[in-house]
Amino acid sequence: MTIRFYNYVLSGNCYKFRLLASLLAVEYESVAVDFHPGVEHRSEKYLRLNPAGTLPILQADGRVFTETQAMLVWLASKHDKSGAWWPEKNSDAIVQVMQWLGFAARLSATVGELRLHSMLNKDIDAAAAKAGAIKALRELEAHLVQQQIRGEQWLGANSPTVADIACFPYTALSPDAGIEHDAFPAIRQWLYAVRSLDGFVTMPGIHELHEQRDEQSPAAETKTS
Amino acid sequence: MNNGLEYAMHDWYPVAIEGELEIGQSRQTRLLGEQLELRCDDSVCDASVCDASQRAGNTGDSVGTITIFSNGRKLPVQRAFNHLWTTLSEKPRELFAISEAQEPGRRLVPCGVVRVKCSPLRAVENFLDIAHFPFVHTDVLGAEPHTEVYKYDVRIDDTDDEVIASNIRFYQPQASKSSSGGIETQYIYRVPAPMAAVLYKTCPPKPEAMDVIAIFVQPLDEETCNVWPWMALYDDVSSMADLIQFQQLIFLQDRSILENQIPRRLPLDPKMEIPTRADLTSVAYRRWLKRHSAWYGAQISIDSLQNHSEGPNAHELAE
Fold first, then answer.
1. Which strand (E) or helix (H) includes residue B213?
2. What is the mean pLDDT of chain B?
3. I need a surface site. Which of B104, B128, B291, B319 has the fewest CB within 10 A?
4. C-alpha span between A33 and B33 (Å, rounded)
5. Each residue of A151-173: pLDDT tens digit?
6. B108-128: burial string, b at 16+ Cβ within 10 Å, e else
7. What are B40-97's pLDDT values in tens digits?
8. CATH 2.20.25.680 matches B5-95
9. How far apart are CA B274 and CA B148, in angstroms?
């Protein structure tokens, strides 16, 4: 059965789906939506599909999904035989995963909005978005430091989950919004680890890891390119 | 004191896509450090302030009439290449021509606007560069190991006062939305104004013609710009959204790199950045800017002005 994905190439939320689909080698049909400058996602045709007027939109299993985090859970629960990306049988892990899936919405609302402002001139309260973005990134940094002390490098479990994919794009794209990663060393390591995963794909603003990698980094060993 | 504004203020710059503002809407923007307000209303165009627009056939039709104000002053407006253009000058230079815009069968595609925290000149120079394709636009406009930029020709055309680079060829895995598989793409570049660049490249579905892709740069100030990509293509197959996203994908791959270039302003002193042979277009562009004292967004030292140095010639550059 066809999986149809309504996509905007510059959207961090759309990229979450594209990234996890690539990591799990899931094929889908992609339909480009003219988010900018056409504002096509707010056209009658798309509002009929998604009254919220947001992207992405996923059609699969005879259903329409409009929440990105739900799309990630759908991908993982249907297409990941290992069960690691959506660890539903591990109650400790799944609670952590839910926590960071929720947190991802805060990143979209702060870093994501500030990025649209910096890049596509979206009219928002930029100072408030920036303050919120820095606060969210500090919390993420603090959590990743705690994880490192525990000897773990992922957000919710001892291997990557949908939570890492949900939080990755807008964290990685914060320089697009004028917030560099220099002040967030644990975040930088985690971004490196995600970019080292087999099947990783890029988007504008998120670059491929260079072949010459830092041998000291724990992530360097996991990449097979 | 001369910061290049003296040259820059007499050019036309894009500030909106045609038909983008609805009647009753207004929008703030900036141009060369000046605050602008765009207002769209249903009044008939005032020919005394907007004769260029009148010539273009705008008589206040259903898309509304745009009036642009700067400090209470009405600025001239004209429509060209699907955009609205304005100038701070009372006696502006003529806006450059792109004759392909009139060719029947071409699809004219305004690709929206992207704000970049870089000098407007750096945005143009990046557009002229081929060598970065395999590394920044990997598997689209270039791919390793096909990284060589073959010898090409660059000249400053004195009649039209433009920089022209021709006989450029480069291997591209996916040259455009309409291409399927890798081809050797031919390129011609034109710089018809300091803050605009037009390229002509092999059109995969119509080999006898060339696709046209341009960037029109709106300088907000010397270190921030709005970039308006625009295309005139032969492609009957791809959807508009697909065409736009292909171009946005490519331009946004450049954005994060442009925002990290140091120094922020384009250095016109030839000793500041060392070019190689692949950078001939850039060398000519910088030389041409210097010749016109078009220094808005540029960095120039008093030392290099006194020496009248124009930078290296082609034969002096490393292969």
1. strand B210-221
2. 88
3. B104
4. 34
5. 999 999 899 999 999 999 999 99
6. ebbbbbbbbbbbbbbbbbbbb
7. 988 755 544 444 444 444 444 445 788 999 999 999 999 999 999 999 999 999 999 9
8. yes
9. 18
Q: What is the pLDDT of residue B45?
A: 54
What value, to the nearest 5°, has the Cα angle with vertex A121 and ends A119 and A125?
Answer: 110
The answer to whether A83 contacts chain B (CB < 8 Å) is: no
B184, amino acid identity: E
CB contact under 8 A, A8 and B245: yes
Q: How far is residue B314's CA from residue B309's CA, in Å, rounded to a whole number?
A: 15
**Contacts with A156 (C-beta within 8 Å, 6 or more apart), sequence order:** A87, A93, A96, A97, A99, A100, A163, A164
CB atoms B253 and A119 under 8 Å: no
3-state secondary structure of B53: helix
Q: How far apart are the first and last CA of chain B?
A: 38
A124 within 8 A of A116, measured Cβ to Cβ:
yes
Domain boundaries, chain A: 4-79, 91-221
Intervals of CATH 3.90.380.10 along chain B:
100-258
Instruction: Give strand pairing partners of B165.
Output: B154, B189
Q: What mean pLDDT do residues B115-139 have?
A: 95
Structure tokens at A116: 């649209």
Q: Does B244 contact A204 at a Cβ distance shorter than 8 Å?
A: no
Which token pair is A67?
A: 């929440």
CA-based torsion, A82, A86, A89, A93: positive or negative: positive
Fold topology of A4-79 = Glutaredoxin (3.40.30)
Count of all residues that appear for chain B in the document:
319
- Would you say B206 and B234 are in contact if contact means Cβ atoms under 8 Å apart? yes
Span A111-146, pLDDT tens digits: 999 999 999 999 999 999 999 999 999 999 999 999
Region B112-140: what's the mean pLDDT?
95
The answer to whether the Cβ–Cβ distance between B245 and A32 falls below 8 Å is yes
- Superfamily grouping for domain B100-258: Naphthalene 1,2-dioxygenase Alpha Subunit; Chain A, domain 1 (3.90.380.10)
Fold (topology level) of A91-221: Glutathione S-transferase Yfyf (Class Pi); Chain A, domain 2 (1.20.1050)
Cβ separation A9–B245 shorter than 8 A: yes
Give just the sign of the alpha carbon dihedral B279, B260, A193, A101: negative
Could you tell me which of B82, B296, B91, B111 has the C-alpha nearest to residue A36? B111
Best mutation site among A7, A31, A207, A208 for testing chain B: the one with the most B CBs within 10 Å?
A: A207
User: Would you state the structure tokens that stand for residue A41, as one six-digit string?
Assistant: 């996602």
Instruction: State the Cα–Cα distance between residues B109 and B106, nearest whole angstrom.
Output: 9
Residues B24 and B212: beta-carbon distance below 8 Å: no
Q: How many CA within 13 A on the CB side of residue B276?
A: 11
Residue B139 at interface with chain A, using a CB cutoff of 8 Å: no
Size of interface A-B (CB pairs under 8 A): 63
